[in-house]
């Protein structure tokens, strides 16, 4: 009995603390958003996928009201090596390299206006909005050319996107944006953030979560190969041998 | 029709893979070689990462060679004893080769190493094949008969640890076959090839084996060494893509039938000359890739 009262009191104190820390929410939220799916499945026929991020704002979006919507998506970190080719005796081979440890495997940003027009540099940096605001710290050669090459190549293969898709507005308050994943997308947890921006400030933000998973045959093959490579290796040998043997039976002439 | 390759982590047109399998199978049926030396560069060309191309190429070689091995075994054309000795060397060689491969991968030089191996080995073998076959074609034109090669005694026959190989009618030291097996094993691991195109001439010219048992015995060695490479690559590098392998084999077994029926219409020297030119052109193509200025000096990759 006493314990139950104590627990209720603790809960009350916690709630009060939480209420003080966050100002009481307005009757209608300034921003509501959701995604079309919280799971992207990599099947055997996977060629990439796209999800729709959509939502509504309390006030009108656009130049008159000065409100903008930014949608940004991150994938799990993927340490990446950038290598530079050098010419040795007429042959081109991989020379110096730089490792970028903390870079997202996937990054996409879409906005009603480019973020550098609507937010000061400091805010962009802390919220990591825009490819130029990503903290691309490198170990190894620090030449800025490596950083530039990383940005260029990641955008080329579609794993980093800057304003590749527009944020479309309907009825002044409904917005939607497409986030598309290439076929080389990594599995893992993805985070999509929707931000409402006015007067160079982030007014509201909402985080949405998405999981990219292999399913079906592709999933079982990849997991067996990783978890039990000995079994996988043997299965590969046996399957290849059977396929060859089967072929010779089917096509045997005489 | 796109298909997702679970280990390469990318999707590729299945018809393209079937087509490559068919083409390589056709050539391998025509020339009686595994065709791995064509397959791996083609896979790299269409964007498959080099480690996956090499490992899956070795896996495909098993399938492409196993039916030939069964046929040769039935006809009694396999010198199992010689095969076993070659295999001991082959296992050690492929084990060392996979270690070398993992090392190169960490150093970020896999693509370069694979390309250099291809250029040097294919260039040399291709030139030797073309020269030898052109000579024998010319000789036949002049004399009307192909000259038979006499069984020569070289320093190789003076080595210790002699062993009797009844099927090959040889009494030679086990050192040369061990070394030959070892060398082919390394090539198999680094290049993703079976090595038949090198093993056959090595058996004829270095070991002096009779031609009748050469094909069967080389297939014996190729199948088991490729199996070993597949296993080691799967365990150590984790780069064998079974979906890729099976698609290539599906095209390959069909192509091989067409190639084999066409191959019977060609003369031996002509076949060898054509094969030599093919090998040589693959080598030259890869050499060109190494020396031409790259489109982009930079490349990115996942941290191994």
> Beta fraction of the residues of chain A?
35-45%
What is the total number of structural domains of chain B? Answer: 1
Helix content estimate of chain B: over 70%
What is the radius of gyration of chain A computed over CA atoms, rounded to a whole number of angstroms? 25 Å
Stretches with pLDDT under 50, minimum 5 residues of chain B: none
Would you count the extended β strands of chain A for me? 13
Average pLDDT number of chain A: 83
**Of all protein chain pairs, which has the greatest interface, and how many residues does each chain bring to it?**
A-B, 61 and 58 residues
Protein name (chain A): TIGR02186 family protein
Keywords (chain A): Membrane, Signal, Transmembrane, Transmembrane helix
Pfam families (chain A): Alph_Pro_TM
Protein name (chain B): Probable membrane transporter protein
What does this structure look like?
The complex is a heterodimer of chains A (254) and B (304). By secondary structure, chain A is of the alpha+beta class. Chain A has 2 domains: 25-214, Immunoglobulins (Immunoglobulin-like, Sandwich), CATH 2.60.40; 215-246, no CATH class. In chain A, 31% of the residues lie in helices and 37% in strands. In chain A, the strands form 3 sheets. Chain A has a 6-stranded mixed sheet with strand order 2-13-12-4-7-9. A 4-stranded antiparallel sheet of chain A has the order 1-3-11-10, with no helix packed on it. Chain A has a 3-stranded antiparallel sheet with strand order 5-6-8. In chain A, helix 5 (216-227) crosses helix 6 (229-250). Chain A is globular and about 75 Å long. Chain B is mainly alpha-helical and 304 residues long. Chain B has one domain (2-291). Chain B is built from 10 helices and 5 strands; from the N terminus they run E-E-H-H-H-H-H-E-E-H-H-H-H-H-E. Chain B has helices at 14-31, 36-45, 50-74, 80-107, 110-143, 175-191, 196-206, 211-237, 242-263, 268-291; strands at 2-5, 10-13, 162-165, 170-173, 298-302. A two-stranded antiparallel sheet of chain B has the order 1-2. Chain B has a two-stranded antiparallel sheet with strand order 3-4. In chain B, helix 3 packs across helix 6 and helix 5 runs antiparallel to helix 10 (268-291). The mean pLDDT of chain B is 83. Strand 5 (80-88) of chain A pairs antiparallel with strand 5 of chain B.
């Amino acid at each position: 009995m006493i314990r139950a009262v104590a627990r209720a009191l603790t809960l009350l104190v916690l709630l009060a603390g939480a209420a003080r820390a966050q100002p009481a929410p307005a009757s209608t939220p300034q921003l509501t958003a959701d995604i079309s799916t919280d799971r992207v499945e990599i099947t055997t026929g996977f060629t990439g996928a796209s999800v729709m991020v959509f939502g509504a704002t309390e006030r009108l979006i656009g130049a008159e009201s000065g409100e903008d919507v930014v949608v940004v998506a991150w994938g799990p970190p993927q340490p990446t090596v950038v290598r530079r080719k050098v010419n040795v005796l007429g042959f081109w081979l991989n020379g110096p390299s730089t490792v970028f440890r903390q870079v997202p495997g996937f990054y996409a940003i879409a906005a009603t206006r480019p973020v550098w027009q609507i937010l000061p540099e400091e805010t962009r940096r802390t919220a990591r909005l825009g490819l130029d605001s990503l903290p691309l710290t490198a170990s190894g050669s620090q030449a800025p050319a490596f950083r530039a090459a990383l940005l260029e190549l990641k955008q080329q293969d579609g794993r980093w996107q800057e304003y590749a898709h527009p944020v479309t507005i309907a009825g002044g308050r409904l917005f939607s944006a497409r986030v598309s994943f290439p076929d080389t997308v990594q599995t893992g947890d993805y985070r999509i953030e929707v931000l409402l921006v006015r007067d160079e400030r982030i007014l509201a933000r909402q985080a949405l979560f998405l999981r990219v998973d292999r399913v079906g045959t592709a999933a079982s093959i990849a997991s067996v190969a990783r978890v039990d490579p000995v079994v996988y290796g043997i299965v590969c040998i046996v399957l290849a041998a059977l396929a060859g043997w089967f072929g010779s039976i089917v096509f045997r002439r005489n | 029709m796109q298909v997702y390759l679970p280990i390469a982590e990318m999707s590729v047109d299945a018809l393209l893979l079937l087509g490559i399998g068919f083409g390589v199978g056709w050539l391998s049926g025509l020339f009686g070689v595994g065709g791995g030396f064509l397959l791996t560069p083609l896979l790299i060309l269409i964007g498959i990462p080099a480690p996956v191309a090499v490992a899956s190429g070795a896996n495909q070689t098993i399938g492409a060679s196993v039916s030939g091995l069964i046929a040769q075994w039935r006809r009694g054309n396999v010198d199992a004893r010689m095969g076993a000795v070659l295999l001991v060397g082959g296992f050690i060689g492929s084990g060392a080769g996979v270690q070398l491969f993992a090392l190169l991968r960490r150093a970020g030089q896999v693509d370069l190493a694979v390309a250099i191996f291809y250029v040097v080995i294919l260039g040399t073998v291709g030139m030797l094949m073309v020269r030898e076959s052109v000579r024998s074609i010319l000789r036949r034109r002049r004399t009307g008969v192909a000259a038979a090669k006499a069984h020569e005694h070289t320093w190789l026959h003076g080595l210790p640890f002699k062993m009797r190989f009844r099927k090959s009618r040889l009494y030679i030291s086990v050192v040369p076959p061990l070394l030959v097996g070892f060398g082919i094993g390394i090539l198999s691991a680094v290049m993703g090839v079976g090595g038949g195109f090198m093993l056959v001439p090595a058996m004829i010219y270095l070991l002096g084996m009779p031609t009748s048992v050469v094909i069967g015995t080389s297939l014996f060695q190729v199948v088991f060494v490729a199996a070993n490479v597949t296993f080691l690559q799967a365990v150590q590098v984790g780069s064998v893509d079974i979906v890729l392998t099976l698609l290539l084999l599906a095209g390959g077994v069909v192509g091989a039938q067409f190639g084999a029926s066409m191959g019977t219409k060609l003369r031996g020297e002509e076949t060898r000359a054509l094969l030599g030119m093919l090998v040589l052109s693959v080598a030259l193509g890869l050499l060109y890739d190494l020396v031409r200025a790259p489109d982009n000096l930079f490349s990115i990759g996942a941290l191994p």
